[in-house]
Amino acid sequence: MTRQIPAERPLPHKTVILDRVLADHDEKRGRKAWLLPVTAAASIAVIATGALTVPSMLKSDPGPAPAGKGGGASSAATTKPKAAENTVSVDRGQLTATQAKAFATECIKWVGSHDVPGQTYETAPLDWPGMGAKIGKIRHATKVADSDRSTDWTVAVDSGGSTYACVGTITTKDPDGRVRRNYDFGTFSRKYPDGLGGTGDNLGSIGKPDGTLTGFPSSRWVTVAPGVTTVQRRMVMKGKPGPWFTTDVVDGLAYIRSWSSATLRLGDKAQVETRRLDKDGNLVGPVVIDRRVVVKGLSGDGYTTLSSAG
């Protein structure tokens, strides 16, 4: 089975929540579900001050790492987070200029590719030139940790008045000729009602036949205001907060990941909290909270899923 590159992600109406996208996997761990960019104001709450919460995540926490630098902005709240809070950095350094250009060149190929039938990760040749989009500026060329302790590349490309982003690994070709593309492509938007911009939230889970959910990865590109130097995110499962995953702002952008290995059952509640800090560690703007609840799946086979809980 081949999967079509999600070339240019359509911008949803600001009062609509995208339907849940369920991807079944034939694996012992169960069914993996992804909830793609949430765009309804009803599902997202913002508060001026206070901490966000979300427990430890996925396979294993990457372990304590230095927290990112604080982030600042202009006129919102300036409450300083509690000093005792646990933080985990997901930053793993910068790409070299050569790496950044190679990944940006691969990423920009897919701008407009939805107009080319049959061009998929598997079928497009390694040297496929793409649809002719030109690189204007390369931003946020960094490395980021994943929940399994692996490292991905991130890059945002300004082109034709829009910003496109890719996260994953550079394309390779096996000795047998098979091309391997392992990255996600997205288009930036300023229309998400939570005010974070970027490409919208991704929140996944692994469902099991007994109705439990586990393995919760979350990620988000964030566009920040001047003065913000750090973006943090944590997950709160059944009222228990996990660590603040933290990343430094680069070129006015941040790519933040968080994860949890908690187990949830029908009716359990979870939330993902995102905050922005200045260089002194002061909170800038509201804390954004995405609230979820475990509900029965649509298939009626005993599986459950996370649904928005506005």
State the secondary-structure class: mainly beta
N-to-C span: 36 Å
Largest sheet entry:
8 strands, mixed
* Spans of at least 5 consecutive residues with low confidence: 1-78
The beta-strand count equals: 19
- What is the general shape? globular
Q: How many domain units? A: 1
Task: Give the topology string: H per helix, E per strand.
Answer: EEEEEHEEEEEEEEEEEEEE
Number of helices: 1
Q: What percentage of amino acids are in beta strands?
A: 35-45%
What does this structure look like?
This protein is mainly beta and 310 residues long. The chain has one domain (24-297, 303-307). It is built from 1 helix and 19 strands. Strands 3, 4, 13, 14, 15, 17, 18 and 19 form an 8-stranded mixed β-sheet that branches. Strands 1, 2, 10, 11, 12 and 16 form a 6-stranded antiparallel β-sheet that branches. The protein has a 5-stranded antiparallel β-sheet with strand order 5-6-7-8-9, covered by helices on one side. Residues 1-78 have low confidence and may be disordered. The chain crosses the membrane at residues 34-54.
